[in-house]
Amino acid sequence: MQIYLPIAEVSVNAFLLLGLGGIVGLLSGMFGVGGGFLITPLLFFIGVPPAVAVATGANQIVASSFSALMAHLKRKTVDFKMGLVLMAGGLVGSALGVYVFTLLKQLGQVDLLVNLFYVVFLGIVGGLMMIESLNALRKSKRQGPTKSKKRGRGIAQTLPLKMRFRASGLYISAIPPFLVGLSVGILSAIMGVGGGFIMVPAMIYILGMPTKVVIGTSLFQIIFVTAFTTLLHATTNYTVDIVLALLLLVGGVIGAQFGTQIGAKLKAEQLRIALAALVLLVCGKLGLDLLLTPSDLYSIGTS
């Protein structure tokens, strides 16, 4: 069933969009990521303009993340205090990111730079996550289950503005979480992502948070930052397609419920390996699209 998207100005199969939303919702529940790193490139692939895909993808992330967060609230695996600090940084970052996005849109370079951002960030993050996760899996097989290392806590403990995060068992400076949230907020605005693919590793390896509260806390932060980002894009760039957002939202809410059930049955190392593989797969596809000659190549010349 073809449906016309008024802002994107393209016709797309409605069931395809529901399926894409469902896949992203599944990932949101399993990994604690908004899924924007996947949904935005997938929208590129089916013909949605990058500017619309970025702004509308951020809107869909709100719904799938909220649905997944409900399951984590029942398990009491959300550190609200940490989430608020991350969210404060994220709101500032998203405002800066939307400003940069608007400038790029005015220069006519937003499509190319959004794709380049995806290739660079997904390649770096996916590669590092895959290497670390495979090493952790090998060690766990040889030595049995081990406790996660609290990396980065030394730096966080030497900085001022220390706060006690009881749910995470941490007493660290609020500056590192704020900066992590700030960087993720900027990426959310420019790339249309929740930032979970960077947020989750940063919370584990930089802030030293235990894995059991990382996913729920990440989702809590993602909801508010992506909602704010969507609002800014809608009021400044007018690139949020309501019809597209609604179809993705319905699929995302349904998929997130299944994702939380699957994620609870897998080990932390297995979850990270699966997430890293997805990140690298999307990165490879985007990289090929940038290098290969487009099928609809044309030129504008003067006689």
Automatic annotation (TrEMBL):
One GO CC term, this protein: plasma membrane
Places the protein is found: Cell membrane; Membrane
Transmembrane segments: 12-39, 83-104, 116-137, 163-180, 186-206, 213-232, 238-259, 271-288
Record's signal peptide: none
Membrane topology of the entry: Multi-pass membrane protein
Primary localization: membrane
Keyword set, alphabetical order: Cell membrane, Membrane, Transmembrane, Transmembrane helix
Domain of life: Bacteria
Pfam name, any one: TauE
InterPro entries noted in UniProt: TM_pro_TauE-like, TSUP/Inactive_protease-like
Family membership: Belongs to the 4-toluene sulfonate uptake permease (TSUP) (TC 2.A.102) family.
Protein's name according to its UniProt entry: Probable membrane transporter protein
Organism: Donghicola eburneus
